[in-house]
Amino acid sequence: MFPTRIFTSPTVSEQSSWLQALKGKTAGADVFSALAKKAPSKKTLTKPFALSKEYVTKRWGRGQAAATPLQPTRVQPLVQEVPGVSAAMALRQKALHAAVASGDLVLTKDGCGGAYLLCDDDEAPIAIFKPRDEEFMAPHNPRGYVSHGAVLGESLHPTRKGFRVGNGALREVAAFMLDAAYEHFSGVPVTSLVTAPIGTTWKEGSVQAFVPSESSAEDMGTRQFSVHDVHKIAILDLRLFNTDRHAGNILLQSTNDKTTKYKMVPIDHGLTLPSYQHLDGATFDWLHWPQAKFPLSAAAIAHVQSLDTTRDAILLRSLGLPEDCILTMQISTMLLQKAVAAGYSLYDIGMLVQRDGLGDLPSQLEDVPHVVFTGRQRAQSDTV
After folding, report:
1. Cβ(45)–Cβ(1) below 8 Å
2. What is the pTM of this model?
């Protein structure tokens, strides 16, 4: 059985009152009231979701139902049913072959962590490999950004609250999978996990399809960007609570489209989905771009409303992300859906999430988890 959704869809009036309370810094009790008004009474599952044999057979089986034990229902592998997985597996195989065939890999010039360009037999770039133990502040970072004694996946990140050292690879994959689940709306390049050799050492990390580009967004004026592309990236960043969206990790591809000169491709998602206890680091460069204040298109609105936090939470659990980070996705998605339904622009929503100015004062969103959990605890104690 699927886990219960943390938040349910409110009425339009509830959406408006909730957002006005949040945007106007109304007392936290009002915010909680709007959030929890229709919260289900059942407790949300906290353990990783497990598919039973019966469920798999019923949900994913193909062909006619079994007439006898000698005629079992044919069950296709789940991997073929999850959007993006087939492409990720194909990329992993190509990357592994390229890493083994090339011998010593060469470190790229840019970035704070280890990143290596993988090429095919014809020396054409196919992917970027980022080992976990070479991520920013990981033990073997080749650029000097090292946290000595850090344990991958366990040690708290020394400079990024809400993260653990070496877990950026999981988030890179999570960003792709969450985007692939909705027909690649935001255009995150194919990403997978792989264990590949660097010299004589085999390392685990993320591998992302190489994206040929003319430049990054930091090299162009914002007038060159289409409203559609800015919006698709902004929606992704709000879903994932991106703490590192800057113009340098948005690639620009030349296009023949008459409406825009460039197609924007978002990359570098290793610093998304922090713990819900640290919602203080959202960073959205697009907040300063005029496109963020434009109304959303009908297609963008439909995409936002189609987001399913229950399904997305199951996907994130399958990747091994902890519950406190999954809750961040649920909170962020809920906010995005309520705000869009009430007619807010992505600029308005981003201003609720990102801290103002120097970042000394909490954002409007930061009080929500505390208010929700405090209110639920009170509600539960009243029923005991």
Report:
1. no
2. 0.79
